[in-house]
Amino acid sequence: MTAATPQLVVHRDKELMAQAAAARLITRIVDAQAARGTASVVLTGGRNGNALLAAIAASPARDAVDWARLDLWWGDERFLPSEDPERNVVQARAELLDAVPLDPARVHAMPASDGVDGSDVDAAAARYAAELAEAAGAPRSSGASRIGVPAFDVLLLGVGPDTHVASLFPEHPGVRETELTVIGVRGAPKPPPTRISLTLPAIRAAREVWLLAAGEDKADAVALALSGPGELQAPASGAHGTGRTLWLLDRSAADRLPPQLYPPASA
Ligand SMILES: O=C(O)[C@H](O)[C@@H](O)[C@H](O)[C@H](O)COP(=O)(O)O
């Protein structure tokens, strides 16, 4: 088994899934901080990612995290004005970030459509790529072959019903990107149409990639993505970490998995 081989955990329902994922993420951050002094997590938009953040906020164990030594990044963002309630960062603030003592300099929100680049989503994406490259210690101009993003401890991804992850949609140009780490996305099938997204090479630099899917509307996507199609047809199948790739599911989302993929024990 390689790090790209998905490990599956199936929980009874989406509430338990969010609570167990929260406990798992708290532990992972505490372990990374104990080992390296700091930790880095990439957040996702969507209901499952938000439920995970809310479960962390409700957990007494959240006080085990040294929030001031945590870097937060985003896997994608809806390209809207900075205070728009549909922005992933605005939702993350409401669910958790406003309730914990983060260092604002370590909260790396993706640019908004009313920022310095205005409505130029490609310039905004390039700005985020530069911020990531700086954090990775590899200036964009260095020509370094290493991908210019930090080795994130955990990168979270919600899985869409069409197998999209971040804002990488099946058969869209973004899923073919091999050079850039961050792209502007236009014409996304999930509103809003204009978005910023990490690319698959940037996602694959993470130590651990955790994919979250709950609910019956995800069952086909989960079964398809785990049945070995190419990432062009099923972007979720191209998302894996250098150390571990974990699919966190509820029973409804796992319902159509081929029997040989269903984990022997489900919590
Ligand atoms: O900005 C977004 O919309 C996302 O980051 C997107 O990729 C999301 O994670 C999936 O669509 C799953 O969303 P749900 O968890 O709501 O199903």
Tell me what you see in this structure.
This protein is an alpha/beta fold and 267 residues long. The protein has a domain at 6-113 and 151-171 and 202-250: Rossmann fold. It has helices at residues 14-36, 47-58, 88-95, 121-136, 200-203, 219-225; strands spanning 6-11, 39-43, 70-74, 76-78, 154-158, 182-185, 195-198, 208-213, 244-250. The strands form two sheets. The chain has a six-stranded parallel beta sheet. Helix 1 (14-36) crosses helix 2. The chain is globular, with a radius of gyration of 17 Å. The model has no long low-confidence stretch (mean pLDDT 95). 6-phosphogluconic acid (6PG) is lined by residues 44-49, 76, 78, 88, 158, 160, 164-166, 190. It comes from Kitasatospora misakiensis. This is 6-phosphogluconolactonase. It catalyses: 6-phospho-D-glucono-1,5-lactone + H2O = 6-phospho-D-gluconate + H(+). Hydrolysis of 6-phosphogluconolactone to 6-phosphogluconate.
SSE order and pairing:
Blueprint: E1 6-11, H1 14-36, E2 39-43, H2 47-58, E3 70-74, E4 76-78, H3 88-95, H4 121-136, E5 154-158, E6 182-185, E7 195-198, H5 200-203, E8 208-213, H6 219-225, E9 244-250
Parallel strand pairs: 1-9, 2-3, 2-5, 5-8, 8-9
Antiparallel strand pairs: 4-7, 6-7
Helix pairs in contact: 1-2
The structure holds 6-phosphogluconic acid (6PG).
6-phosphogluconic acid binds at residues 44-49, 76, 78, 88, 158, 160, 164-166, 190.
